[in-house]
Design brief:
The protein is α/β, with parallel strands linked by helices. The protein has helices at 25-36, 58-73, 85-93, 106-113, 118-123; strands at 2-8, 11-20, 45-56, 77-81, 101-103. The protein is globular, with a radius of gyration of 13 Å.
Length: 124
């Protein structure tokens, strides 16, 4: 599992690659936390790019649930994009489609969550 981030104006695109399971869920939590630090009302909007996430277990879903709850309390924006079919099915079965607003692409999410990032979304 690897977590990387790229900034576009006030949007931070956090990409997750690989698998998130019970073996690395705490590592995922530690890697994700710094990127969520400024995700509050008037702060960063965070787009989770899950296009390269192959699998997420219940332990990984727990980390995502805690992150979503934390961001919601701070009135921030955290959305997910580009779920692979297996991950989408896991999100649907576990009803995470009610926890996260999900977009088809990073560009769609950027246009939706930030007017300042919209020009960057056209070039990315």
């Amino acid at each position: 599992m690897q977590v990387t981030a790229v900034r576009h104006a006030d949007v931070l695109v956090v990409s997750v690659t690989g698998r998130i399971d019970y073996m690395n869920a705490e590592d995922f939590k530690s890697a994700l936390q710094p990127h969520l630090a400024n995700c509050a009302a008037g702060g960063d909007r965070v787009v989770l790019d899950l296009s390269r996430l192959e699998y997420v277990s219940s332990a990984g879903l727990r980390v995502l649930m805690i992150a979503a709850k934390d961001v919601r309390i701070r009135k921030g924006t955290l959305v997910a994009v580009a779920l692979q079919p297996v991950v989408r099915e896991i999100f649907e079965i576990s009803r995470f489609t009610l926890v996260f607003e999900i977009f088809d692409s990073v560009q769609d999410a950027m246009r939706a969550v930030s007017p300042a990032a919209a020009p960057a979304s056209r070039s990315g």
